[in-house]
Design a protein that fits this description.
By secondary structure, the protein is mainly α. It contains 10 helices and no strands. Helix 2 packs across helix 3, helix 3 packs across helix 7 and helix 8 runs parallel beside helix 9.
């Protein structure tokens, strides 16, 4: 099961749809677009050693408890989420929201995506913290998580490899050239 599917299973879509002021199918479609964008943005940032170190530090401040046993949206801090979105996408957050919103169909949904990203970002960080908790080190954990998923675990054994394995080739945005194309264009090709 992909990281997107695992995270989706923990999100109460009816509650999220109500909070966003939309219907459940639209909320679900938006989440399915936004999660790969967030993971892809983290992956792109983690390609730089300083970005990877920053991500590892940020994961240390996010509790895995947020995602364990299902997400309680009342426990999600949108202000923290907005900071995370800012760190992931920088000045490109509006462009990401516009692109994802346009991919949802039914008119421009970029405002919905702008409100959704800060709710999902802490959930994604909690998911990654959970995946990293209890390990002897980042390299050992990532090696065990990747198994054979990303070319037999070949790589530098960093968080970027973990995110790359989670994104896989199957996590493309419907109707788009894939999350890598989207983020590569928006983030200036930071994703390698």
């Amino acid at each position: 099961m992909s990281a997107v599917d695992e995270i989706m299973q923990q999100i109460p879509l009816a509650q999220l749809a109500s909070q966003l002021g939309t219907d459940e199918p639209t909320a679900s479609a938006a989440v399915q677009q936004a999660l790969p964008a967030l993971l892809g943005g983290l992956h792109a940032n983690a390609q730089d050693p300083a970005g990877e170190a920053s991500l590892v530090g940020a994961l240390g401040t996010h509790s895995a408890g947020l995602i364990e046993g299902g997400v309680d949206l009342g426990q999600v801090d949108p202000a923290d989420g907005q900071k995370i979105v800012g760190n992931i996408f920088g000045g490109h957050a509006d462009g990401v929201a516009q692109t994802l919103g346009a991919n949802l169909g039914g008119g421009d949904q970029s405002d919905l995506v702008r409100r959704l990203l800060p709710l999902l970002a802490p959930i994604v960080m909690s998911y990654l913290a959970k995946r990293m908790s209890g390990s002897a080190g980042v390299g050992g954990l990532l090696g065990s998580l990747l198994g054979g998923a990303a070319g037999g675990g070949a790589g530098n054994g960093g968080i970027g490899d973990l995110l790359g394995g989670m994104l896989g080739d199957g996590q493309q945005a419907p109707g788009a050239g894939g999350i890598g194309d989207l983020l590569g264009g928006l983030l200036g090709g930071g994703r390698r």
